[in-house]
Specification:
Helix content is 45%, strand content 15%. With 292 residues, the protein is an alpha/beta fold. It has two domains: 30-116, Leucine Dehydrogenase, chain A, domain 1 (Rossmann fold); 142-267, NAD(P)-binding Rossmann-like Domain (Rossmann fold, 3-Layer(aba) Sandwich). The strands form three sheets. It has a six-stranded parallel sheet with strand order 1-11-8-7-5-6, sandwiched between helices. Strands 3-2-4 form a three-stranded parallel sheet, with helices on both faces. Strand 9 and strand 10 form a beta hairpin. The longest helix is centred in the last third of the chain and has 26 residues, at 266-291. The protein is globular. It starts with a strand and ends with a helix. The structure holds nicotinamide-adenine-dinucleotide. Nicotinamide-adenine-dinucleotide (NAD) binds at residues 143, 166-169, 171-173, 190-192, 194, 199, 212-215, 218, 233-236, 266-267, 270.
Length: 292
């Protein structure tokens, strides 16, 4: 029997509904909606699509999302002074800079300039360090957090399970591996230097297999143990412009117990987690104001 589909859209809707209730209660208590400021440089079409998705979700949830669209040739100094201004603005709860940035700007320096309390993307060193130390401070990055929620929705206990993550980026692979470790899985990270034959052998051990390589069909049926949970983070464009993941969906579904589709899997969950982090930032901000 083919594996069950993990419906990211449906799960994202229930999370957004919870966020909507929390945002409405916040508005009642504080006299304003939680606020998210989004900085975007240039007109990269994919970035525009992602930002549009974030604004639409904010509207559904009742988050006051503001855009700061700057030309691609904005200097790093000007970008940092905008971030400084938003850091100081007490009306701003969450702040993110859409990646990737143009080549003349250091993404690391820009992310480091964001006040950790407003770092709803969870990319700041403070958030990364808190995750590594297993502490509740900072924010967890949205995509790995969304993957963990999808896995939780299967009801499978991760304790003692073999989890394999394909990809070691700072925004997906590494934080996801830490979150799986926190859930007591035995975790292996593979990457572009893992030889292809070895990759297949390692993946076949996985009870939980997560593909975040940005490489179509990097996971085939041969990579998958029967009954595994397969999560596809990849977002790639086919030659005819269609969105596809990293997993060869139909043959892999025949072996998997659960699988995420692309689109409709991890993508909507990433946005729902951004909404959750933003509401959380506003609530923490409210508590900090009360402490004075
Ligand atoms: P990245 O390019 O920063 O990292 C890719 C990682 O995959 C690297 O660590 C690399 O070593 C590894 N890799 C590449 N080819 C490989 C191969 N053949 N075998 C094994 N490992 C390989 O990308 P990223 O930002 O981590 O994103 C990964 C994918 O996830 C992309 O397709 C991206 O578009 C997608 N993504 C989706 C969402 C979402 O919300 N659905 C969010 C973020 C990223």
């Amino acid at each position: 029997m083919p594996g069950a589909i993990m419906d990211g859209r449906a799960l994202a809707r229930t999370i957004e509904e919870d966020c909507r209730r929390r945002a409405a209660a916040y508005r009642q208590r504080c006299g304003r909606a939680p606020r998210l400021d989004v900085v975007l440089l240039g007109d990269d079409p994919a970035s525009r699509v992602y930002v549009r998705g974030k604004f639409r979700a904010s509207e559904r949830v009742g988050i006051d999302a503001r855009d700061h669209f700057l030309p691609a040739d904005t200097s790093e100094a000007d970008l940092k002074s905008l971030i400084e201004r938003l850091n100081r603005d007490d009306a701003v709860d969450g702040l993110l800079v859409q990646l990737p940035l143009p080549g003349h700007i250091s993404g690391n320096a820009v992310i480091a300039a964001i006040r950790p309390e407003k770092d709803v993307d969870g990319f700041h060193m403070h958030s990364a360090g808190a995750l590594m130390m297993g502490r509740g401070e900072g924010f967890r990055p949205c995509t790995p957090l969304g993957v963990m929620r999808l896995i939780a929705s299967t009801g499978i206990d991760l304790c003692g399970k073999e989890a394999v993550v394909i990809g070691r980026s700072n925004i997906v692979g590494k934080p996801l591996a830490l979150m799986l470790l926190e859930a007591n899985a035995t975790v292996t990270i593979t990457h572009s230097r893992t030889p292809a034959a070895k990759l297949e052998e390692i993946c076949r051990r996985a009870d939980i297999l997560i593909a975040a390589a940005g490489c179509p069909k990097v996971v085939t049926a041969q990579h998958v143990k029967r009954g595994a949970v397969v999560v596809d983070v990849g977002m790639n464009r086919t030659a005819d412009g269609k969105l596809c993941g990293d997993v060869d969906f139909e043959p892999v579904r025949e072996r998997a117990a659960f699988i995420t589709p692309v689109p409709g899997g991890v993508g909507p969950m990433t946005i729902a987690m951004l909404m959750q982090n933003t509401v959380e930032a506003a609530e923490r901000h409210e508590k900090a104001r009360a402490r004075g």
